[in-house]
């Protein structure tokens, strides 16, 4: 299958591109810099020069494709307008290509603070204000007649380099303290980028149009013990953690970062039962700390 990937050099996207190439798909990734193009080519994809902010400049060069994976956002204040304008330009072009498959990326933060009750695909949305725009966008994808739309909602994504735990690792390497947003009790549903990439591939290859799937390998783990272990193993016995508020992290990184304080649980059972998804990374500390332990 010839697949076009937007956001193909991010934590999610690069793992997805690598997985698709390994499965024999022909992958074209959108690249807004020479370094992004090189990263795509290094894992076996080809690159199309372009930026999601200016689709009119590259859509004319997009070859006929059979599928699209949209995993691109820049977390800027205008990300709503950027995404809407991208779909406005892209969907009519895809309509002329025979209704290709289209996988849109949502996220666990669209469900708000679920506490100990795992969000499932039919749970009502309660998004952070910074991401409320995404709900009508994903509904647009699921109902668009120009494509065969599906949605993947990733849990909190980590990889060998850290992913969502990157700030923990960075602060621990500097001796701490490791910041924990909202409190050590806060639970994060988690998924390794490589496991999530397999889910994207399965959705692309097997899912029916109109379906959504949660990419959650671990339903919800308290952040405090994870942060403490990272602090001790990497930073040493004197390295500790520090609780920071959602207001503080929002001031530092933007309103979207309030999501780190959400106490959440999320079920990935539908992906397991319907698509045969079998995550293999079920111990984040082993993945993150093996070289130092």
From TrEMBL:
- MF terms in GO: aldehyde dehydrogenase (NAD+) activity
Q: What Gene3D superfamilies has UniProt attached to this entry?
A: NAD(P)-binding Rossmann-like Domain
Note the Pfam families from the entry: Epimerase
Where would I find the NAD-dependent epimerase/dehydratase domain in this sequence?
A: 3-212
Can you list the GO cellular component terms from the UniProt entry? cytoplasm
Cross-referenced PANTHER family, in alphabetical order? NAD(P)-BINDING DOMAIN-CONTAINING PROTEIN-RELATED, PROTEIN YEEZ
This protein is called NAD-dependent epimerase/dehydratase domain-containing protein
Q: Give the species.
A: Sinorhizobium alkalisoli
């Amino acid at each position: 299958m010839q697949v076009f990937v937007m956001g193909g050099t991010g934590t999610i996207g690069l793992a997805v591109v690598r997985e698709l190439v390994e499965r024999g798909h022909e992958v074209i990734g959108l690249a807004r810099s020479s370094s992004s193009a090189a990263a795509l080519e290094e894992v076996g994809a080809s690159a199309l020069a372009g930026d999601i902010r200016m689709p009119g400049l590259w859509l004319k060069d997009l070859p006929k494709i059979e599928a699209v994976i949209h995993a691109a956002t820049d977390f800027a204040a205008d990300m709503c307008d950027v995404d809407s304008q991208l779909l406005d330009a892209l969907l009519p072009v895809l309509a002329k290509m025979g209704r290709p498959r289209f996988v849109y990326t949502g996220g666990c933060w669209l469900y708000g603070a679920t506490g100990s009750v795992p969000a499932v695909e039919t749970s009502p949305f309660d998004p952070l204000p910074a991401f409320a725009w995404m709900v009508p966008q994903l509904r647009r994808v699921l109902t668009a007649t120009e494509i065969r739309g599906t949605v993947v909602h990733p849990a909190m994504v980590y990889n060998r380099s850290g992913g969502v735990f990157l700030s923990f690792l960075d602060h621990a390497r500097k001796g701490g303290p490791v910041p924990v947003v909202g409190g050590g009790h806060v639970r994060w549903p988690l998924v390794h980028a490589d496991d999530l990439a397999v889910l994207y591939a399965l959705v692309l290859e097997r899912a029916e149009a109109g379906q959504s799937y949660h990419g959650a390998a671990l339903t919800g783990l308290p952040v405090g013990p994870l942060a403490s272990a990272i602090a001790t193993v990497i930073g040493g016995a004197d390295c500790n953690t520090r609780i920071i508020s959602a207001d503080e992290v929002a001031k530092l990184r933007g309103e979207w970062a309030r999501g780190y304080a959400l106490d959440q649980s999320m079920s990935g059972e539908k992906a397991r039962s319907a698509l045969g998804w079998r995550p293999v990374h079920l111990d984040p500390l082993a993945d993150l700390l093996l070289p130092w332990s």
